[in-house]
Amino acid sequence: MGYIPTYEKAEEILKTYNKDEFHIKHGKIVAEIMRYFSREFDPEREEFWTIAGLLHDLDFELYPEEHCIKVQEILNKLDVDKDLIRAIASHGYGIAVDIEPVHKMEKVLFAVDELSGLIGAVAIMRPSKSVMDLEVKSVKKKFKTLNFAKGCSRDVIEQGAQMLGMELDELMDVTIQAMKSFAIEFEI
Predict the structure, then answer these.
(1) DSSP states of 92-129 as a string?
(2) Phi, psi for 80 (deg, rounded to 5)
(3) What's the burial of 47, exposed, middle or buried (CB within 10 Å: 0-12/13-18/19+)?
């Protein structure tokens, strides 16, 4: 059966396997984006969505070649809920694992992980260095500039939007709104 860790416990787990502030901050940003989306799609499971976002890249810093594979082993050893492990691993679908995102939460995680990185990179380039004045058209422009934020897969972002049945602009807009909801706290 396993358990779903509290946010504090999940953060402790994240920091056990990640020392780079960038990876820790990315986990927290994706957690808050997931919290935002959960309020729209699945408010009863807000904590589940949030924890999945927080732990989604748990294994990336130490095991980049086994990303989304090693996380399953780590979380199984910690007796974490199997549905949570599956959800986390599914964000590497088609890249590192063959666990297809099927639940709404898994599809959101798949879509917003890469997109949050792109949006963050666009925000840093702005005079304000913030998402607070960021618009979809700015993100869309950089989305089309393939040498900008090369690590953010445009294919994954587009595939995620398709999985969710959303237009790319709509997914970008909602993700920007999510990031604006906590931007001051995270200085993004």
Answers:
(1) GBTTTB-----SHHHHHHHHHHHHHHHHHHHHHHSTT-
(2) -80, 150
(3) middle
Residue 134, sorted as left (phi over 0), alpha (psi -120 to 50) or beta, turns out to be beta
Tell me: the pLDDT tens digits for 95-135?
A: 999 999 999 999 999 999 999 999 999 999 999 999 999 99
pTM above 0.85, yes or no: yes
Contact 45, 105 (CB under 8 A): yes
Cα gap 11→105, rounded to integer Å: 20
Which residue do the tokens 């679908």 mark?
93
* Rounded (10°) CA dihedral 88, 168, 35, 134: 130
Locate the domains of the chain by residue range: 7-186
User: What is the rounded distance in angstroms from the CA atom of residue 152 to the CA atom of residue 148?
Assistant: 9
Cross-strand bridge partners of residue 97: 93
H-state helical runs in the chain: 7-17, 21-41, 46-55, 70-77, 82-89, 104-125, 136-144, 154-164, 168-180, 183-186
